[in-house]
Fold:
Amino acid sequence: MTTINDIAQLANVSRTTVSRALNNSGYVSEDVRKRIMKIVEETGYMPSQSAKSLRTKRSGVIGVILPRLSTETSTRVVNGINEVLAKEGFQILLTDTELDKNKEIDYIRLLKSRHVDGIILLATNVNDALIQTIRQVDLPFLAIGQELPGVMSLVYDDYHASADLTNMLIHKGHEKIAFIGVSPEDPSVGRVREKAYRDMMQQHDLVVNESMIGQGDFTIESGYEQMKSILKNCREDKPTALFAVTDRMAIGAMEYLKEQGYEIPGDIAVVGIGASNMSKYITPSLTTIDYFNKDAGKKAAKLLLSKINDKKIDEKFELTYRLILRDSV
Amino acid sequence: MTTINDIAQLANVSRTTVSRALNNSGYVSEDVRKRIMKIVEETGYMPSQSAKSLRTKRSGVIGVILPRLSTETSTRVVNGINEVLAKEGFQILLTDTELDKNKEIDYIRLLKSRHVDGIILLATNVNDALIQTIRQVDLPFLAIGQELPGVMSLVYDDYHASADLTNMLIHKGHEKIAFIGVSPEDPSVGRVREKAYRDMMQQHDLVVNESMIGQGDFTIESGYEQMKSILKNCREDKPTALFAVTDRMAIGAMEYLKEQGYEIPGDIAVVGIGASNMSKYITPSLTTIDYFNKDAGKKAAKLLLSKINDKKIDEKFELTYRLILRDSV
DNA sequence: CTGAAAGCGCTTACAG
DNA sequence: CTGAAAGCGCTTACAG
Structure:
């Protein structure tokens, strides 16, 4: 492999000068610069990033930690992150926790050892060990999706999104609204969205029938199963609407409802959250909330870059959303 | 940051010994090893990967080049790659070409400069500059999806998949089969799939009506538009079936057909390729080909690792597929 | 079983 | 405007 020394020799200068020419740091005469650049061009020389990073403590790499590599949400966010980062010459080092909390911590430390310049975590839970680790590695850090105390966080407005959806159903005259949530281990999706639903029900003096509450695990299948058991549990007192906290679970529920001959939205209205691709093309098209995940990714990247460049910035940022009204209600 | 020197000092040994203990290379007595490990534990020391990689020329990082970050196919493949790689302690450095051929080449060189141990390219085209570059960087390299001459390639069996689909339609009695393809710039998707379709038509003495041939660009919208113009162009001589070379285009076409009041499959049958998530939940569910993208990713990672470990392996591997018969035919 | 020394390929004060 | 030298944090022959 050609190194800076080879270039220096070929150009008859010191490697100091080559380095300066390459990085536009310090003075170097036009002739020399041209001579160097020509040789760089010819040889196809590329500076070793390991050496560079060892020396400068900067790698031009941002670590991204995902809960799952193959969900639309993750993909969109990463896409946004990458769009901004690539423009600034940064690359993404990707890791996937497979929803394992320990891996979250392992990867933070691993990324540190790989000298990433910063880390973006798509967070699915909040716990002390995690926050502890983040503090320890002392790297520019941003969490998306959950508010981590003391950590720069970019969060969706889960409360209002969920409240809007519930209110919308109520205003359409629904009083018996079933709900499929997820584990409270995930504060944003599990806890906040459910709280907003319950708050709105209460505000309108509607009682929540606990047999109409299910807990899924984000999968389509769990939506299907939860719908099934809700319908079984509440017997003759059927809900007239379903609020599932993710599109995938909503779609699973719709599958079951359609199988059982329910008309959507005639017999039961369905709403989800996430604006998945599928939500638009399923029949009937699903009413949902668009969280603009790609924009979230972009914003995340920008915030992290600011932090890296030592700009003073706030700790918490809230994102906006949009309710997409479609045929399922 | 704690370095190997700090550990050495704390443990009262040389850094040589620490290195040996950490890497299980060469002898080191039990006492010393334990002493070292304890300190490593306490300090949370992690060796600098930059220094390591500078010295050893190995980084534990694999570069992955994607045509688009946000397609199901890409995501599934990356997921498979990551599953195998993570187990072996490798990380993925992710790059997205946004379908720009120049970026493909730039990224290969960039990844080289970042000392990746190997590169996996989800290929969408074949050209000399690309092959040239791959040869130049002289790194373990694997292309997925296209056969690159002289480069280890893992390809889908586009010809037979496409032929099967066409035959299936013919055997169901269809004679006027419309076709939505993509640019021949993409040999596998654009050229091979179309060739198989034409070959099968010919084998069954069916003439291809050129006004029933469209060319989309992978997007749902292009499927919609192509279907529209096909229907317009062939006037009264309507097709009774449509073969779109990707699910997304098939779904776009279905949208248009449904809008226009066509019954699927009654008036016109539709098939796609890709086994997208949506294909299962759209109404009617879409007949398609499953390419097992995740398995492809796994296989790719395994092949690349073999190559890195200097195993002699073949240059070309063909993947299997499965036809999923559903309600759209 | 352990250590001193060289070297990987860069950048950056420092000196001229 | 240019260069010699030190040093980033590791590993690995070599010597003992």
In short: The mean pLDDT of chain B is 93. Residues 146 and 155 of chain B are 6 Å apart (CA to CA). The two ends of chain B are 63 Å apart (CA to CA). The interface with chain A takes residues 44, 46-51, 53-54, 59, 61, 69-70, 75-76, 78-79, 82, 86, 91-96, 109-110, 112-115, 136, 220, 251, 255, 277-278, 281-283, 294 of chain B (CB under 8 Å).
